[in-house]
Amino acid sequence: MLQHFRVQPMFEGGQLPGWTFSFQQGAERYTGDYMPDGTIKWTNSVPNDEESVKKMVHELMTFHVYE
């Protein structure tokens, strides 16, 4: 489960190219960039269960950005 999920536009005014996000999973903190095409670029370490974490991030981004 992802905790303390935060998202913000990469640039002021919310203009594309994407958003930065961060979250806590267990004792680890992860950060990354979410691109408009749904690509995730991790800016620190990559989670061990990357595919399942990507699905959770996509769901949260849909809720936070596109709603």
TrEMBL record:
It comes from the Bacteria. InterPro entries: UCP037692. Pfam families: DUF5342. This is YheE family protein.
